[in-house]
Amino acid sequence: MRQLKRLFYFVLLNIIISGVTVVVVLQLWERNHPSSGTQATPAVIVVTSTGADNLPKATNLTPQTDVPTDSGLPEAGTVEATPTIKMLVYQVKEGDSLGALAIQFNLSIDDLLLANDLADPDSLYAGQLLYIPTAPLPKVTPTSVPTTAVPSATLRPSSTPTYGPTVTTMPTQTWQAPQVVIETVIGSGELDFERVVLQRTGDGDLSLSGWRLEDGTGKEYIFPSLTLYKGGGINLYTRTGQDTVTDLFWGLNTPIWRSGKTVSLYDAQKNLRATYTVP
Fold first, then answer.
1. Of 58, 162, 199, 230, whose CA is between 20 and 30 Å from 72?
2. Would you state the pLDDT for residue 40?
3. How far is residue 107's CA from residue 10's CA, in Å, rounded to a whole number?
4. CATH superfamily of this structure's domain 179-277
5. At residue 10, does pLDDT exceed 90?
């Protein structure tokens, strides 16, 4: 009987010691391994340019809260959205040029080239659809890219030694002086349609302020303050009308152009700059 009591007390003592040991171990484990919660990472809002009708609309990404903190996204900060730029869809008409459209919509030719992914400003054709920004496109500022150190490598000498630096010849671009060409006379003899078509060639801008167009019989038209850009053009109608950036009106009541008649264009210093004989 005494042996059973001793055995009972011995087992009870072992159970108490084991329980205390487990509690102490758990407290030490929680103290050295605190639990970490998942922090929500602010989502980036992407704003794309909007356009008229069939252009893409702005897209917002819904913020996600289950992104792990080690995903590489910034944990805090302000995300600035690019300004939304609306665009119009314009169908090119006969006689349109990129320079004239730039003047009409108060934009630069570079903005029109960039918005329509064009490389040649003279590649327009009638019926073509162009995207016209309603405001100048924002300038892109290049950011510096950190250089990465490249480990040195052992280079084998070439069989043919070279002496001095290698010079690569770059092609040179020839600058052409701006000129105005009398391209054609349309609708000669019909007052409603009769007009002289002038076209810009060469580089740079060209002001037609004070220039004169004569018919050889004493009639002359003096151009207002007008600048033609590279690739631009202008129509000079014989009849009356309201001047625009692409169309000018002489204000005459009768047609003046007929077959064999010569159109002469003089600059502000009275130098002959172009001629055209009506076929």
1. 58
2. 40
3. 97
4. Lamin Tail domain (2.60.40.1260)
5. no
User: How far apart, in whole angstroms, are the C-alpha atoms of residue 233 and residue 199?
Assistant: 4
**pTM score:** 0.40
**Collapsing DSSP states into helix, strand and coil, what is residue 134?**
coil
Q: How confident is the model at residue 8 (pLDDT cuts 50, 70, 90)?
A: confident
List, for residues 202-224, the tens digit of each pLDDT value.
Answer: 887 889 999 999 999 999 999 99
**What CATH fold (topology level) applies to the domain 87-133?**
Membrane-bound Lytic Murein Transglycosylase D; Chain A (3.10.350)
Q: Which two tokens stand for residue 212?
A: 């004169």
- In the predicted model, is pLDDT for residue 252 greater than 90? yes
State the Cα torsion 66-67-70-71 to the nearest 10°: 160
| Paired strand residues for 275 | 264
How many residues belong to the chain? 279
Residue 213: C-alpha distances to residues 68, 209, 222, 245, 272 (Å): 73, 12, 7, 18, 10
Cα 31 to Cα 28: distance, rounded to the nearest angstrom: 5
